[in-house]
């Protein structure tokens, strides 16, 4: 179990982690979600005693990291897959870790087998692909057979086979009763892996909920409408007591499953429809709604304004590219 209580980290004026209180429980996969810069890695570094909290406290099975006698036998972590010394062979890297942490050398073979790196055990880490490095990092995390495992963005840059492998590994570790804490900025990935969700934005706790509850609350079904007769349709909908909201690009959205009613209404008022479709909002959209006000770097979704070809020829391209990205540094 990992328990955070009022955990806070400031770097000068910047509050990277802001008063986080939550518990990561055994037997399930807990997803740790937040947009870029939300404070996930900083939180994980504080759990491992690599960064000191400005305020608050974090405990691993009731103790601070530095109080654990052989920490790798309590908590194993993958923070940065490329942090391995490139000149070291995979086997040697794990052996050094084992020897310096009081772990029997025989575990090296076992974990290499578990992560599927036995065939390349004598190869130097600098020749490893990102996927192989992730597997080596995970082997290091598993080395002490710990009850708690923590992975920082383990699927970043992996191919579908690697993603599937990590997903099933995390689930099987949790099924063995271990505590599994995994960070990601992809809600869609977490929906397939995690049983519980902790969402943060700009260092603050935004949600601490079961995945089932999150899906239940955020699976919105709505009707999407495109029409060249927008004003007439809005009047007709209004007259029938149906509320439509603009959803960008001239589209309208109506909550609930009223597609037939809207279609018949449009026909009665001779309104042309280009689209009338029932949609289900994705969990990724729900996550983006939840974290919208805490995202530090926004890319504009509409295309940049069109420029006559040749105008600002020398600087136009760079300028248009710069215009397309709006950076708002909040907080
Ligand atoms: N050593 C540091 N000095 C100053 N600021 C830092 C330092 N480490 C992190 N930060 C800032 O703290 C905030 C949180 O960073 P952190 O890396 O924990 O976020 P994250 O959620 O892991 O992001 P990502 O998904 O991009 O990895 C960011 O604004 C970052 O710039």
Provide a descriptive summary of the structure in words:
The protein is α/β, with parallel strands linked by helices and 331 residues long. It folds into three domains: 2-217, P-loop containing nucleotide triphosphate hydrolases (Rossmann fold, 3-Layer(aba) Sandwich), CATH 3.40.50.300; 220-280, 2-Layer Sandwich (Alpha-Beta Plaits), CATH 3.30.70; 303-331, no CATH class. It has helices at 40-47, 90-100, 106-115, 130-142, 160-175, 187-193, 211-218, 230-239, 259-268, 283-291, 316-323, and strands spanning 2-11, 14-24, 29-33, 55-60, 75-78, 148-152, 179-184, 196-201, 204-210, 221-226, 245-246, 252-255, 275-280, 297-299, 325-327. The strands form four sheets. Strands 5-6-7-3-8-9 form a six-stranded mixed sheet, with helices on both faces. The protein has a four-stranded antiparallel sheet with strand order 11-12-10-13, with helices on one face. It starts with a strand and ends with a strand. Adenosine-5'-triphosphate is lined by residues 11, 14, 16, 34, 36-42, 185. Residues 297-316 have a biased composition (Basic and acidic residues). Residues 297-331 are annotated as: Disordered. Pfam families: ABC_tran (PF00005). Belongs to the ABC transporter superfamily.
The percent range for helix content is: 25-40%
* End-to-end separation: 32 Å
What ligands can be seen in this structure?
Answer: adenosine-5'-triphosphate
Gyration radius, in Å: 25 Å
Count helical runs.
Answer: 11
Please give the largest β-sheet. Answer: 6 strands, mixed
Q: Total number of β-strand segments?
A: 15
Biased composition (Low complexity): 317-331
Domain ABC transporter: 2-227
InterPro entries: AAA+_ATPase, ABC_transporter-like_ATP-bd, ABC_transporter-like_CS, P-loop_NTPase
Region (Disordered): 297-331
